[in-house]
Design a protein that fits this description.
InterPro entries: NAD(P)-bd_dom_sf, NAD(P)_dehydrat-like, NmrA-like. This protein has 109 residues and is of the alpha/beta class. The protein is built from 4 helices and 4 strands. The chain has a domain of 71 residues. Bound molecules: NADP nicotinamide-adenine-dinucleotide phosphate.
Amino acid sequence: MEGRGGGNGGDGSSGGTYCVTGATGYIGSWLVKALLRRGLLVHATVRDLEKASYLLPKWNGGDRLKLFKADLHEEGSFDEAVKGCDGVFHVAASMEFSVPDQENIGNHH
Ligand SMILES: NC(=O)c1ccc[n+]([C@@H]2O[C@H](COP(=O)([O-])OP(=O)(O)OC[C@H]3O[C@@H](n4cnc5c(N)ncnc54)[C@H](OP(=O)(O)O)[C@@H]3O)[C@@H](O)[C@H]2O)c1
């Protein structure tokens, strides 16, 4: 998805551009809303653009909000989203845990 670099108000906003990862999450979704309310430009990363669609009317960001598809497990997938940003709120958090079969948890004291 195409993004817009616009740090420091490239499009007229004076507050700058901020990336929020995990924008569909509890903290991320409120952060997006709070930043937009302050008149800032927001690059919001989501894993599933469809899943984010119900949040769009709640965010009501208009053209100050850009969505980017990115996954922590995909190298480089956040590159476009952070490009041109003045700051990044990295709140995406993977809940996938795996312990290799051969690893003995008893060894971790
Ligand atoms: N909530 C709290 O009270 C609290 C307090 C202190 C610290 N924290 C920390 O703050 C962070 C966010 O918490 P939260 O409550 O907002 O969590 P959350 O509601 O579970 O949101 C997690 C976000 O990360 C995204 N995500 C999960 N796996 C991903 C992956 N592989 N690649 C990219 N994005 C991925 C999720 O996307 P999907 O929607 O696609 O699953 C979701 O947007 C966590 O590190 C948490 O430990 C939270």
